[in-house]
Specification:
The mean pLDDT is 94. The chain folds into 4 domains: 8-166 and 180-254, Metalloenzyme, LuxS/M16 peptidase-like (Cytochrome Bc1 Complex, Chain A, domain 1), CATH 3.30.830; 275-454, Metalloenzyme, LuxS/M16 peptidase-like (Cytochrome Bc1 Complex, Chain A, domain 1, 2-Layer Sandwich); 526-749, 2-Layer Sandwich (Cytochrome Bc1 Complex, Chain A, domain 1); 768-955, Metalloenzyme, LuxS/M16 peptidase-like (Cytochrome Bc1 Complex, Chain A, domain 1), CATH 3.30.830. 45% of the residues lie in helices and 20% in strands. The strands form 5 sheets. Strands 1, 2, 3, 4, 5, 6, 7 and 10 form an 8-stranded mixed sheet that branches. It is an alpha+beta fold.
């Protein structure tokens, strides 16, 4: 299926079963730009362009350039074309990402006109950015000086504040320390995202030089995926972009550190407010290079076998000896195949014990071998996850996979095609030679052993050092230099505050409302009922996979029981049953499925909510039939006698939650604010929010005195968790597989006892709350239930949320304030919540939320501008979804009695949005903000400085 494209030289082409695509590899004849094409039937077309961008220090230049390229260009003259497209496009993905040695710009869309628009904006951005003419872009996105309250000199900037947030997380700091220890001051020892201590060392000139040296076609990797006509886009890329350059040798060399000749032992500190957090220990090594496709897969398989699974051999070895509270593994995205195995929450000064436990475990595995069934089960789970191929965004995942080898001079086909490497690994397992790979690649590798010690003074020391640094700079400023800083800061603020001109706005490519398809995607459903149980079958193409959900009503449990129910997913399938050990159970599960997930959840609409306890599993084809007896064993015969195992699993859950706080702070804050005024949201907090965390933490802090009563309560709740009243079975996959499965499903659903409904009345606590932890940024949310203000949900509220998130809140909290992100979400249930992400400001952000009504009162948009905002909201009604997700969406609709026609009406309401309807929400937003329902999550110092704002302050 080779095709000739003008000005491109064909290199190689072949069909790829693993991507279901014909893959063609070309080079642009004049510049050497490399081009990879994947032709298939997917309507979600993908374009991406990437560049090799290895760092030479910790200043974060690659990251800052990534942000800045999307802030205006030769053809597109607004301050932020990226945000204009987020606001007004039908994109299904629109972003950019900086890795340790590359920067990529992927987009995707199901609309051809939209796709071409997005491609051109991104191409113009990367090759002809406005940042050469406008230094303020560097100052906004990277860093700049300003005087806080016209007094104290500070650093500010989006990337600077983002990386302050990243390095507030001890896990991130430990990862940086380990990478620096393993690679020293070479490419992979540097922080490509930028270390906050080093970002202010980056000059505007060095920033521009980096772009000149790296953002050139000769250093580019271009990618097209889907069913689009690639001739048109390739001609366009050549004519308007590549042909304007000549081939060039560029300084983009990756500098590798020498291999370790012997084990390296290091000890460093990390900041915390509690010495009981203990030490981190990291066991780091390199397994070869990414250009070896088998080793790429082998590394991920070893990670699953040894650490990621609850039965991982290294995880068990460390937990059995009470060495630590949690163990996790990180894998590099780089040429060296680095592995970082980290134990968290351990006693200090035990590096040698840590090393010995791991080495002894590995030696034992090499001598005795893995349990063959468990090894095959893990391999089966691993293969299923690979074959699912990245879900909604598989076209983008394929690009990243190709770059795993392509970026380093090897064929992109190695990174795309995994079946041969999987077959090779399976053969190695079946031949009993797998342990030799463990010995060669892991046991015998030279290691870095790093201890990161808890230091309660380090955060204050860093803050004092920064304050001294800035004070010294401020004291040494001349009058002219102070005036220049004030002038530049004011000029930046003026630049950010000045609306784009009509001429600039006109440069952004646009869709029209005529480009919007009417209605929403129909999800086919075949519904049957037998003995009170409902069966929903969704005949979707799943590439041979079968997805099964059992959903049980949980309204028969009181609040204390729901708190216990929330912990069951951490245990079911992971502790023994009366019939088999947890290891044998795990093996049986993964031999036949991708796993069994237990999920207590709350479905909510304006008029109804439903508490459900769901069980999800996915299998290759008919293997789903074999999972039902295993599931039944878990549902009826789980034993709660393994006290230490239960404690360890709950401790892993607690530390995992805590590790995610600074990644998910905006979700935590906005969900918490919902719980102030919504009963379903309050129950949701108990099942998975901060109430859940505090319940779990309190239990573990008092384990010895409470464990007996807790285990009794847990078993009691387990025995009634699977309510036989209103069972729903949902299946997505092939109809023949489903029909053959129905008799067994019917038999199973008849075995559950029914329980009466319990009327829950959780106590709501309207308040202004703050939750502090060692961090240098905040996550801030205000909200309310619009139903309480007699404001029924309308589809035009999705347009309102798009307008505020991508316009007003973005401009004031991110662009001006330096936060990494901000927005508002308005659910169809009526719950409204604002949020900010990695925010360096508090009172200013709250004031911005409170002024949303005033902003709407002053709103003046043309009909065309309103149309663009409407178009940008359309994905809220018909987002890109996998077949599994389509089944889950329709399950939710069934539970809440939602008709597709109702959702189509909401979409029509959105399409009919006018300036008047947007302005009509002024009073509603003001009323909602005036309720003063506030949750702030993050920086202990900033919360303490503003404690008078809050009714309650909690320490996490």
């Amino acid at each position: 299926m080779k095709k000739d494209y003008k000005n491109y030289t064909f290199i190689e082409g072949k069909y790829s079963e693993d991507t279901n695509s014909y893959v063609s590899y070309y080079k642009h004849t004049a510049t050497g730009a490399q081009v990879l094409l994947l032709d298939n039937d997917d309507e979600n077309n993908v374009f991406a362009i990437g560049f090799k961008t290895p760092p030479k220090d910790d200043a974060g230049v690659a990251h800052i350039v990534e942000h800045s390229t999307l802030s205006g260009s030769r053809k597109y003259h607004t301050k932020e074309p990226f945000m204009d497209l987020i606001q007004s496009s039908l994109q299904t993905f629109l972003n950019a990402m900086t890795f340790s040695d590359k920067t990529i710009y992927p987009i995707s869309s199901r609309n051809q006109k939209d796709f071409m628009n997005l491609c051109d904006v991104y191409l113009d951005a990367v090759f002809f950015p406005k940042m050469y003419e406008e230094k303020k872009i560097f100052q906004q996105e990277g860093w700049h000086y300003e005087f806080k309250d016209n007094k104290d000199l500070i650093y500010n900037g989006v990337v600077y504040n983002e990386m302050k947030g990243v390095y507030s997380d001890p896990d991130a700091l430990v990862a940086f320390q380990a990478s620096r220890g393993l690679h020293g001051e070479t490419t992979y020892g540097f922080e490509s995202g930028g270390h906050p201590k080093k970002i202010p060392s980056l000059s505007y000139e060095d920033f521009l030089n980096f772009h000149r040296d790296h953002y050139h076609p000769s250093n580019s990797y271009i990618y097209l995926y889907g069913n689009l006509d690639k001739t048109e886009i390739l001609d366009h890329i050549d004519r308007d972009y590549l042909s304007q350059f000549s081939k060039k040798d560029l300084p983009n060399e990756i500098v590798l550190s020498p291999d370790l000749e012997e084990n390296l032992w290091l000890c460093q500190d990390y900041p915390t407010d509690d010495l009981d957090d203990g030490s981190y220990y990291t066991y780091a090594f390199t397994m070869g290079q990414a250009t070896n496709g088998r080793d790429l897969l082998l590394r991920a398989l070893f990670a699953d076998l040894l650490v990621n699974s609850n039965e991982g051999d290294l995880k068990e070895a460390l937990l059995d000896q009470n060495f630590c509270k949690d163990i996790y593994v990180d894998l590099s995205t780089s040429l060296p195949l680095d592995v970082y195995i980290t134990a968290k929450g351990a006693k200090p000064d035990r590096s040698k014990d840590f090393y010995k436990i791991i080495q002894d475990c590995l030696k034992d595995l090499v001598i005795k071998g893995f349990d063959k069934k468990r090894l095959l089960a893990t391999f089966n789970k691993f293969e299923i996850s690979i074959r699912e191929g990245g879900g909604n965004h598989k076209g983008i995942i394929y690009y990243i996979n190709a770059l795993n080898t392509w970026l380093y001079g090897a064929s992109p086909f190695i990174g795309l095609n995994f079946s041969d490497a999987l077959a090779d690994l399976r053969k190695t397992i079946e031949n009993g030679e797998f342990e030799k790979l463990l010995e060669e690649k892991v046991l015998n590798a030279k290691k870095l052993i790093l201890e990161s010690k808890a230091n309660t003074d380090l955060l204050k020391e860093d803050q004092l050092a920064l304050a001294r640094e800035l004070k010294e700079k401020q004291d040494n400023l001349t009058t002219d230099e102070k005036a220049r800083i004030l002038q530049e800061a004011q000029a930046l603020l003026d630049y950010q505050s000045t609306p784009d001109s009509l001429q600039a706005k006109a440069s952004i490519p646009k869709l029209t409302l005529d480009d919007i398809k009417p209605g929403i995607r129909h999800i086919p459903r075949k519904l049957t009922e037998e003995d009170g149980a409902h069966y929903l079958f969704h005949p979707e193409f799943t590439n041979g996979l079968s997805y099964l959900t059992l959903s049980f009503e949980a309204h028969h449990l009181d609040l204390d029981e729901l708190a216990c129910l929330a912990l069951l997913p951490n245990l079911l399938g992971k502790i023994s049953t009366q019939n088999q050990s947890y290891k044998d159970l795990s093996t049986a599960i993964y031999l036949n499925s991708s796993g069994i997930l237990f999920d207590p959840t709350v479905y909510q609409s304006k008029d109804k909510y439903s508490i459900r306890f769901n069980i999800h599993t996915g299998s290759l084809g008919r293997q789903v039939e074999k999972i039902l007896p295993i599931m039944e064993d878990i549902l009826f015969h789980t034993s709660f006698k393994e006290e230490k195992r239960i404690y360890d699993l709950l401790m892993l859950e607690k530390t995992s939650n805590e590790a995610g706080f600074l990644q998910n702070g905006h979700i935590i804050a906005s969900s918490r604010v919902d719980s102030h005024y919504s009963k379903p949201a309050k129950i949701r907090e108990l099942l998975g929010g901060l109430d859940y965390h505090f319940y779990l933490k309190d239990l573990l802090d008092h384990w010895e005195e409470r464990k007996d009563a807790f285990l009794q309560s847990l078993e009691k709740v387990y025995k009634k968790a699977f309510n036989g009243r209103d069972v729903i079975v949902e299946f997505t996959g092939e109809e023949k597989v489903y029909q053959d499965l129905v008799p067994a499903l019917t038999t199973l659903t008849k075995k559950f006892q029914s329980y009466p409904y319990v009327d829950l009345n959780p106590v709501l606590s309207p308040a202004k709350e703050a939750f502090s932890l060692p961090a240098s940024v905040l996550y801030i949310s205000k909200g309310y239930d619009l139903n309480k203000l007699d404001a029924p949900y309308s589809g035009s509220m999705a347009v309102l949320a798009n307008l505020l998130s991508t316009g007003y809140l973005h401009e004031n909290i991110r662009a001006k304030g330096g936060a990494y992100g901000a927005g508002i979400r308005i659910k169809s249930s009526g719950l409204l919540a604002t949020y900010s992400y990695r925010d360096p400001q508090l009172q200013e952000t709250i004031a911005c939320y409170d002024a949303m009504g005033t902003y709407l009162d002053q709103l003046d948009l043309t009909p065309d501008e309103i149309s663009q905002i409407i178009i940008g909201s359309m994905n809220a009604f018909d987002p890109l979804r996998t077949p599994y997700e389509l089944g889950q969406v329709d399950l939710a609709r069934f539970i809440l009695d939602q008709a597709e026609e109702d959702l189509s009406i909401q979409k029509q309401e959105a399409l009919a949005t006018s300036l008047q309807s947007l302005k009509s929400y002024k009073s509603l937003l003001s009323q909602a903000m005036n309720q003063d329902q506030l949750v702030v999550f993050g920086s202990q110092d900033m919360i303490e400085e503003n404690k008078d704002l809050f009714d309650q302050v909690y320490s996490i």
